[in-house]
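Entry for HAX complex. Fields follow.
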Amino acid sequence: MDPLKQQFYEKSQILGKEVKELLKEHGNKKVDDVLLDQVYGGMRDITSMIWEPSLLDAEEGIRFRGYSIPELREKLPRAPNGTEPLPEGLFWLMLVGEIPTKEQVKWLTENWMRRANVPEHVFRAIDALPADTHPMTLLSMGVMAMQNTSVFAQRYNTGMNKGEYWDATYEDAMNLIARLPRIAAYIYRRVYFNGEQVLPDISLDWGANFAHMLGFPDEGFKEYMRLFLTIHADHEGGNASAHTTHLVGSTLSDPYLSFSAALNALAGPLHGLANQEVIRWIQKMVETLGTTKPTREQISEYVKSTLASGRVIPGYGHAVLRKPDPRFMAQRQFAEDNVQDSDLVKIVWKIFDVVPPILSSLGKVKNPWPNVDAHSGALLIHYGMKEYNYYTVIFGVSRALGVLAAQCWSRALGLPLERPKSVTTEWVKEFLAKEYNVTPAENA
Ligand code: HAX
């Protein structure tokens, strides 16, 4: 058994026993109350799911196995002469709960490199789609096209014992993560560079090799890619892409099917697609105002006109966070340290000054602060990646790390089919009449 798998197996045996005991003793204890507002309101804040790799606090932001983003930037192993964490290290941490050594990360980089071969038919499946297909659709299709190689599906078909689900899931997760940058880079080069591909460089780490295959040999871009791939990896289990992975996976769909579904959730503008929407919106603003150096007053007017036209300000707001997103702040810090004289980065910072008071003044927006997607596009453009329709694909590559680590845990803990209860509005009315003796006014 490989060293990461061995560690995961040992940890999951221990936690599995603990959970069994915990549920035997305390399974009937109440952890939450649910309001009608939450039933209609997208299930916000209802504690109803287990997700081991990370936990989100509304004020503090994400913690991966207890470590905040600033702590991870300090503690996770880096590339030689690098300043940002290697995403391989974060995957190790999310899977087994321990910060890996440099040697362990090196082992993981090499292991993924060995698993990175993408079957030829996957490229042909991508090629078969029209040139104007959105890159996220191509990525989702590319992942689906690999499903015929699923170790989980093959072993299930030959009568796999339940006790081995975690093992087959681990193999699929490792293979899928290893292959994903190659598929994502293939899509970028096919859509924007007439299919002129850059072949992998096996001497590079996972993030740097992705940057290389995209066609960006610049060291600065590689460092940003490592940071990007680390901070977008996970945001606890309730966000749409993570929850989709969990829901689809709970039917024992294999990691290819579950992760492809997750990508379809990530491709929505209220979720991951917001990173492309931010740049699209800023470019429109620059065009409308006729300047690449707008004043705060000009930005303010533009923000108000966007709101007046019934649209959201992309990159702002969050379903859980109530403070500026530490993933935004990490990218801002990176830009302060590495980027001089980018008009676009300066606009992003001015928007940060201007938007929160305007959103707060609406009186309904629960979080007026920037989220992860408010900054990434400006940095990608700084390094030369202008094709904003592609940005969510990079988010997708990163998201695989968290959601697939979580799927290994779901299988190891034997988490069951997910099946929450839904009701009709008629049911709600009857419930209110019976339990609270009230009759909601019709057409009030
Ligand atoms: N601009 C304008 N209005 C906003 C807003 C924004 N950025 N954020 C929230 N609101 C509005 C909502 O649309 C809602 O209005 P209605 O009552 O008229 O429907 C109201 O404020 C209350 O919403 P909320 O409770 O504060 O926020 P939600 O939990 O419902 O939604 C969203 C959270 C992220 C979807 C929301 O803030 C939004 O649409 N933001 C812009 C899109 C975006 O940046 N998405 C990326 C989020 C992070 C992420 O997943 N990244 O991948």
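NOTE: Residues 274-382 form a domain with the Cytochrome p450-Terp; domain 2 fold (CATH 1.10.230.10).
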